[in-house]
């Protein structure tokens, strides 16, 4: 598969991507635990089917110390017992925030309240932006058919 648009060589795309990656870096520096950030990025990317983001965030999570067991179980987090209650709340919010069209009402009050039990306002803000950011990046990559070549090295991206 060849990408429809080269983010590096296209000046307009390159300029926009530079700003997007800056936003991604800002999210990484938030107080939301890094493990939660990567789990959320993985789950959103699984739902949307973004191969390049799955390659990136699986490797970033592993490089940050995430276990292969937890990485393999993200897609079935409801049935897995390896995630904390806080991580489960974040994953549920990520799913409802990603499946907006499926849920029709977006993120439910129950899911929001559960996340708010585990995360302070700054962390909730980062979580909301992380879900939104990943959905946007997933869509950009899917629309332009960015391939997952397997060549991504941890730390290369945002």
UniProtKB/TrEMBL annotation:
<dbReference type="GO" id="GO:0051920">
    <property type="term" value="F:peroxiredoxin activity"/>
</dbReference>
<protein>
    <submittedName>
        <fullName>Alkylhydroperoxidase</fullName>
    </submittedName>
</protein>
<dbReference type="Pfam" id="PF02627">
    <property type="entry name" value="CMD"/>
</dbReference>
<dbReference type="InterPro" id="IPR003779">
    <property type="entry name" value="CMD-like"/>
</dbReference>
<dbReference type="InterPro" id="IPR004675">
    <property type="entry name" value="AhpD_core"/>
</dbReference>
<dbReference type="InterPro" id="IPR029032">
    <property type="entry name" value="AhpD-like"/>
</dbReference>
<feature type="domain" description="Carboxymuconolactone decarboxylase-like">
    <location>
        <begin position="13"/>
        <end position="96"/>
    </location>
</feature>
């Amino acid at each position: 598969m060849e990408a429809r648009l080269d983010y590096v060589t296209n000046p307009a795309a390159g300029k926009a991507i530079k700003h997007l990656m800056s936003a991604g870096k800002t999210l990484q520096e938030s107080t939301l635990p890094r493990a939660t950030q990567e789990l959320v990025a993985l789950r959103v990317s699984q739902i949307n089917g973004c191969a390049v983001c799955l390659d990136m965030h699986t490797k970033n999570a592993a490089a940050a110390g995430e276990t292969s067991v937890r990485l393999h179980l993200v897609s079935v987090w409801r049935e897995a017992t390896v995630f904390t209650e806080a991580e489960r709340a974040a994953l549920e919010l990520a799913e409802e925030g990603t499946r907006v069209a499926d849920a029709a009402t977006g993120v439910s009050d129950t899911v929001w309240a559960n996340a708010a039990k585990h995360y302070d306002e700054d962390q909730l803000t980062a979580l909301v932006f992380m879900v939104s950011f990943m959905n946007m990046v997933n869509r950009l990559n899917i629309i332009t058919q960015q391939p997952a070549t397997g060549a991504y090295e941890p730390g290369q991206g945002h």
